[in-house]
Specification:
elongated, 3 helices, mainly alpha
Length: about 100
C-alpha cells in the first residue's frame, strides 16, 4: 500500500513539473505582444495557465507593466513539489522501518 501511495505522490510531483514547463512557455510567450492568441495551441496554453496565474495576479499587481505574479506562482509550485517529494520519501521510509 505504501508503494502505491508513494508512486501516486511522485506522479503528482512530476505532473507539477510538467505544468511548470507549460507555465514557462506561457511566460515566454507573454513577451511577444503581437502573437495571435486565437491560435489553438496558444489559446490552449493560455487556458491551462491563466486561471492559476490569475490567482497570483490578484495578490501582486503589475508594476510598471511588468507582471511579477509568475515568480510567486513558480515558488508555490516548487513548494508543492518539495512537499510531495518529502511525503513520498516519508511514506517509503516509514514502510521500510515498519517492516524491518
Amino acid at each position: 500500500m505504501q508503494d502505491i501511495l508513494s508512486t501516486f505522490l511522485q506522479v503528482l510531483a512530476q505532473t507539477l513539473q510538467i505544468y511548470s514547463l507549460v507555465l514557462i512557455v506561457r511566460v515566454l510567450l507573454s513577451w511577444f505582444p503581437n502573437l495571435d492568441w486565437s491560435n489553438p495551441v496558444l489559446s490552449s496554453v493560455s487556458s491551462i495557465t491563466d486561471p492559476y496565474l490569475n490567482v497570483f495576479r490578484g495578490l501582486i499587481p503589475p508594476i510598471g507593466g511588468l507582471d511579477l505574479s509568475a515568480i510567486l506562482a513558480f515558488m508555490a509550485i516548487s513548494l508543492m513539489q518539495q512537499l510531495l517529494n518529502n511525503a513520498s520519501f516519508v511514506v517509503l521510509n516509514g514502510a521500510v522501518n515498519y517492516y524491518s
